[in-house]
Fold this sequence. Notes:
The chain is an alpha/beta fold. Helix content is about 40%, strand content about 10%. It has helices at about 20-35, 50-55, 75-85, 130-135, 145-155, 165-180, and strands at about 15, 40-45, 65-70, 95-100. A four-stranded parallel beta sheet has the order 2-1-3-4, with helices on both faces.
Amino acid sequence: RVEGLRAQVAKASRVWVEGKHDAELVEKVWGDDLRVEGIVVEPLHGVDDLAGAVAAFGPGPGRKLGIIVDHLVAGSKESRIVAEAMAVPGAAGNVLVVGHPYVDVWQAIKPSVLGIPAWPTVPRGTDWKTGILKAFGWPHRTAEDVGLGWQKLLGAVRTYADLEPSLLGRVEEVIDFLTA
């Protein structure tokens, strides 16, 4: 926190993340810095129509997007979606899409922070979050269970040092892009 400094009015530029949990994590760790810069974090609730969302936003000078995508690895569905979004008029130079290798942003929390040696392996065909919660022995059957599980995980995060470098670097890259 910066003492004596008031948050700015939000700028037109935005940080977009895939979902609510991503937004809550970015806000918890970088929120004070983003408020100083006047940058808002918004969840997309999925990236399946990223090109449509980028086109509707209308990027341009002074109206930039920094987008953080889960599981952005070569040859993935997400990599094809990002390529389509970057072809939207106005995106070149005004949109930066970065990603991390994790199935979900939960996995960007260092296992040691949670007191485990590694994230559990979830069998193919099992919803990843449900599988993680089940492996932890936590309630996992409802959306409320998933939300409460996330709150436990998020509660373990105190600083950026509790997160994997592959997420840290991407978020910092987006912030630098939006504030340059």
